[in-house]
Amino acid sequence: MRTVDLRIEGVAFGGKGVARENGKAVFIPFTIDGELVSTRIVREKKQFADAEVVDLRERSSHRVEPPCPYFGECGGCAYQHIDYAHQLEIKSRQVGDVLRRIGKLKDVPMRAIIPSPLEYAYRNRITVHAENGMIGYFRRDSHQLIDVKRCPIAMEEVNRELADLRSHDVRDGHYTLRARSGPRIFSQTNDGVANALRDLILDLVPPNQELLIDAFCGAGFFAKALLEKFERVIGIDWDRFAITAAKENASAKETYIAGSVDNELYAALAKAVLEKTTVIVDPPATGLSASLRKAIVDFAPATVIYVSCNPATLARDLAEFAPRFKIESATPLDMFAQTAEIEVVAALAAL
Q1: Which residues contact 89 (CB under 8 A, 6 or more apart)?
Q2: Which of 66, 61, 41, 65 is nearest to 53 (CA)?
Q3: I want to staple 341 with a disulfide (CB 3.0 to 4.6 A). Which of 119, 137, 242, 336 is the partner?
Q4: Residue 186: pLDDT over 80
Q5: What is the C-alpha separation between 337 and 155, in angstroms, rounded?
Q6: Using CA atoms, how far apart are residues 208 and 19, in angstroms rounded to an integer?
Q7: What is the C-alpha separation between 291 and 263, in angstroms, rounded?
C-alpha cells in the first residue's frame, strides 16, 4: 500500500475528508478541511480511492481532543475531533452541496442550521448489541463488537440502563435502552432538537389553512402541535401502536389512520382537492416512494413540509416536485451531534 501527502479540500456527506490525487477523489476519515495529511491508500477504484491517516502534517485550528475512548473505532460518531461550531458549518455546507449535486437544485433558500442544545449527553435512546458476553456497538465498517462501558452522546439515564444491562448475563441480541418508559413507537432521539423542529414547522405553516395531512405521523407529534392552525387534521402511519397512542385524548377535529401511507395519503388528497391543504411528510431514510411522489405532484397541495433524515433522498424527491412547487426554504437541524447524520426540513409552496 502506497503513502501520499494530500490536502483536505472538504468534508463529504458521511463524514470523510475529501482530497484529490491527479484529479481522483480520495476519501479520508477523521480529517478536517484545510489539513495536510500523510495517508496510506487502502482501496483504489477507477473513480475514487479510500485512505487512512498516517500522520497529520498540518493540523486544523478546529481540531479538538475527542472525549470518547472509543472514537475512531466505533462506527457511531464521525466528528468528535472537530469543534462543534465547525461541525455545524460542515453539515450546513453538505446539505447545500447534496441539493445541488443530486437534485440539480440551484439557489435553494438555505436557513441557518439549528444546533443541538447539548453537544453530548443528548440521545434519549441507544441500541447496543450483545455477543459472547460483550455488549456495545459495532466497529467502524465491520460487524465486530466493541465492548462499551459508557456512551458520551447518550443521556445519563440511558448510560445507567447500559450499566444495569452490563451487570447481568444477557442473551446475544440487540437491546434498545431508553431514558424513559412509554410506548415503543418512533420518536426523535434528541429532545432539544425535536422541540426546535416542532417550533420550526409551526413557523413554516402559512395562515388560513383548512386541512393538515400528517403522513408518517407517529403518535401525532407535529399534528397535535398544529391543531390551532387547522380546521381538520388527518394523521397517517403504518404503525398501529403509534396510531393508538395518537388517538388517545384526540379532539373531534383529529382523525388518525393506521395503514399504507401510500394508499391513505392518495385517498386523503383526492378527497381534499377543494380544501386549502398542508401536507407534512416525515419518511424513513429511503425517502418517499414513487407513488407518494406522484400523488403529491398530481394533487399539488398548497403547502408541503418535508422532514428528512437523509439529504440525498430529499434532493431526489425535491427534484421531482420542482415543476409543481417552489422551494421556499431548507433548514438543516443537528439532530445527531458528533455524527455524520443530518436532519433537514424543506418547505414548498404550490405554483
Answers
A1: none
A2: 41
A3: 336
A4: no
A5: 13
A6: 50
A7: 9
